[in-house]
Design brief:
Strand order of the largest sheet: 1-2-3-4-7-6-5-8-9
CATH topology: Immunoglobulin-like
Shape: globular
Signal peptide: 1-22
Keywords: Signal
Structural class: alpha+beta
Strand content: 35-45%
CATH architecture: Sandwich
Helix content: 10-25%
Number of domains: 1
Largest sheet: 9 strands, antiparallel
Amino acid sequence: MIKGLSAATLAFLTLVSVSVQGKVVYSEPKKLTLISEDFGREFELACDSSSKETVLSTHQLNQEYTLRFHFDKSNFRQVYLPRYKNASWWTSDSYQYRWQLEVLKNIAASNKLTIYSLIQGEEYLSYDVDLKGSSKLVKQFKSDCGFRI
C-alpha cells in the first residue's frame, strides 16, 4: 500500500487506470475517434466526402501545437498543422489523397500510435493510442467517406 492513501483511494485509482485505455472508436458516421491511454484525450479524424479530405480535430489542445503521428509498425510519419487561428482542427501537411489513405492504412495495420504535440518543432507532449482491433472500424470509415477501400 502507498503511504498516506486509503484502500478506497487505491481502489479508485486502480479502477480509473483500468477504465481509461487508449482505443479507436467509430460511433458516428465519418468520424473516427482516437482516444489516448493517458486520460482519454480524444483526437477525431473526420472526412469530407466531396473533397476527399480528412481533418484532425481535438477540443483538448489549442492551436499552438503541431501534431505528428508515429506508428509502431512503420516509419511513416504524418504531420498535422493548425488550420485556422482559434479553431479546433488541423489538416495534414500533405493534402494528397494518397497520404491521407496512408494514415488510415497505418491505423488499421499497427498496434500502437503515438501522437506528439510539438511547439516550435520541439516535442512537448505525447499521447499513446492502442490500435488493436481497429481495422474493421477504419474500413467502415473509409467506406462511409467514399474512399477507395
